[in-house]
Amino acid sequence: MTDKMTILIVDDEIVSRYTMEALLESEHYTLVFAENGLQGLEKAELLKPDLILLDVMMPGMNGFEVCRRLRANPRLDNLPVVMVTAWDDPTARLRCLEIGATEVICKPFNRTDLHQLVNSLINPPKASEPKN
């Protein structure tokens, strides 16, 4: 594959954006950043990224509302959305999935966990081709 996959990272905290950038930069993805929910929706519409990493807790429009709006947009409703949260409990995970998240990852996460998750969503295993 010659084209780089694009990941949109939506997080209001610069430290979180920097951390995700540091963890993913070696994978040679094109990383695009948004500092709030509205900016995230605008960039998603403009770029139609391969994956969105979306913080749950942001001022103004939180990640839940951003995810709801992405799922309501026919152009973006199939994009993989990973909700990023500090809430490490089954209820929070279920809430994220109920509003349309593809997956949930809890902070703090490590490089291996993030890479495995991103790779599984951007490069899903292909069905085996029939043998001739």
Keywords:
alpha/beta, 5 helices, 132 residues, 5-stranded parallel β-sheet, 18% strand, Rossmann fold
Shape: globular
CATH topology-level name? Rossmann fold
Elements, N to C (H/E): EHEHEHEHEH
What structural category characterises the helix and strand content? Answer: alpha/beta
CATH-level-4 superfamily name? Response regulator
State the domain count: 1
Determine Rg (CA atoms, Å).
Answer: 15 Å
CATH class type: Alpha Beta
What's the rounded overall pLDDT mean? 89
- What helical percentage do the residues reach? 40-55%
Structural features, described:
The protein has a five-stranded parallel β-sheet with strand order 2-1-3-4-5, sandwiched between helices. It is globular and about 30 Å long. It is of the alpha/beta class. The longest helix is centred in the C-terminal third of the chain and has 12 residues, at 111-122. The protein has a single domain, classed as Response regulator (Rossmann fold). The chain has five helices and five strands. Helix 3 links the parallel strand 3 and strand 4.
Topology:
Elements: E1 6-10, H1 14-24, E2 30-34, H2 37-47, E3 51-55, H3 63-72, E4 81-85, H4 90-98, E5 103-106, H5 111-122
Parallel strand pairs: 1-2, 1-3, 3-4, 4-5
Helix pairs in contact: 2-3
The gist of it:
By secondary structure, the chain is an alpha/beta fold. It has helices at 14-24, 37-47, 63-72, 90-98, 111-122, and strands at 6-10, 30-34, 51-55, 81-85, 103-106.
